[in-house]
Amino acid sequence: MNYQWYPGHMTKAKRMMQENISLIDLVIELVDARVPLSSKNPDIDELGKNKSRLILLNKSDLADPEENKRWIAYFKERGFHVLEINAKTGQGLRAIQPKVQEACKEKIERDRKRGIKNRPVRAIVVGIPNVGKSTFINSFAGKACAKTGNKPGVTKGKQWIRLNRELELLDTPGILWPKFESEEVGKKLAMIGSMNDEILQMTELASELSAYLMAYYRKPLFARYQISKEEKLTPMQILDLICENRKCYKKGQEPDYEKAAALLVDDFRNGRIGRITLETCEQQQEEEQK
Ligand code: G4P
């Protein structure tokens, strides 16, 4: 499969990031809790060096709760401030403000020593497409917030959302490009829906997904499609059983694998199979030890 992100978009996004990052103290990076590493931008560490960093594991409602805990520990160990959230319902957002203060402790202290009072922390929200940036800004900033106009020293046209006396958010999120380092990463990003589905081969994607679910989440997979087998099934057998369970047939009772594949991927993306994480901390640590 070919996973695309156009170089032109990437150059533009990179330029925007470089321009914006000079204005801010804190980078709030959203990653998808189901694929915390594959949804992380490869260049943000370089772009955001010397800035305070906060990682938000978004869509945590769709990911395995045990894995969420492990990933939080993983990022903490590597020096990040990290929280799990659900930008859609607002769950976990209340913990952000104190975390921001903690992450920016040094800057706040520096300001205080220089006699600068009430200078809010300025933050930017960044992440790859579809990770939930707009949803997050809307629910975190809420309706009560006031947009501040252009300020001296701020690039013309930039709008800051003043959340309170301590925090201002750049109103447009930074769109980051995903990693392209391996096909594995591309596949995972396709599974969570951050690629254009038109370029994807659904049956191939569904086969990969069902093999993973068979290995790690067999119980919820079987429960969803009322599969009562004991033995290990191949992706094709699983698709067959989904066709049966969901009556996916073409004319003449021929199984409609494309339909079953789309159904499986859609069920997964929307959390209907259960809370599933596609890359585990354990797998990652094994990789790092190799
Ligand atoms: P972006 O700005 O980073 O591109 O992402 P955006 O906010 O547009 O969110 C992309 C999709 O992810 C939206 O769904 C949004 O509702 C959903 N989303 C964002 N945060 C969460 C979360 O924490 N949990 C869950 N379950 N979903 C989240 P959509 O399909 O575009 O719209 P809709 O289904 O909400 O109508």
Task: Characterize the structure shown.
It is a single chain. By secondary structure, the chain is an alpha/beta fold. The chain folds into 2 domains: 8-171, P-loop containing nucleotide triphosphate hydrolases (Rossmann fold, 3-Layer(aba) Sandwich), CATH 3.40.50.300; 201-289, Conserved Hypothetical Protein Ylqf, Chain: A, domain 2, CATH 1.10.1580. 43% of the residues lie in helices and 13% in strands. The chain has helices spanning 7-21, 44-47, 65-77, 96-103, 105-113, 133-141, 183-192, 202-216, 218-224, 235-246, 257-269, 281-289; strands at 26-32, 52-58, 81-84, 121-127, 146-148, 160-164, 167-170, 174-175. Helix 8 (202-216) packs across helix 11. The longest helix is centred in the first third of the chain and has 15 residues, at 7-21. The radius of gyration is 21 Å and the shape is elongated. Mean pLDDT is 88; it is low at 146-155. The structure holds guanosine-5',3'-tetraphosphate. Guanosine-5',3'-tetraphosphate (G4P) binds next to helix 6.
